Amino acid sequence: xxxxxxxxxxxxxxxxxxxxxxxxxxxxxxxxxxxxxxxxxxxxxxxxxxxxxxxxxxxxxxxxxxxxxxxxxxxxxxxxxxxxxxxxxxxxxxxxxxxxxxxxxxxxxxxxxxxxxxxxxxx
Length: 123
Description:
This is Cupin domain-containing protein. This protein is mainly β. 0% of the residues lie in helices and 46% in strands. The protein has one domain (8-122): Jelly Rolls (Sandwich). The chain has strands at 11-13, 18-21, 32-39, 49-50, 54-60, 62-67, 70-75, 79-82, 88-91, 96-103, 107-109, 117-118. The protein has a six-stranded antiparallel sheet, with no helix packed on it. The two termini are 19 Å apart.
């Protein structure tokens, strides 16, 4: 068993959210990564694609999730599953937090841009 305590080294700030890495291969897991996402009211992430399934549980507030041109409002206590290889965008109409789980080897891409990007909080 491994107990992981989040610290400042595991935090990634973007213009749209704050991700705090929890379990990841760099912190002792073999296959999975988990992290928390905090978004202030009005923040919207960019359209992007992840090559792995993600499971999000909203722990506070509300997220509006657009996936494959369909938008759902997901409130605290609800979980949504994002399939791989589908364009998605996350918007926080109010301050929100979520816990996310994914296979640790997932990468992101942006429609119209070349290449992929690793998710540093998930490594």
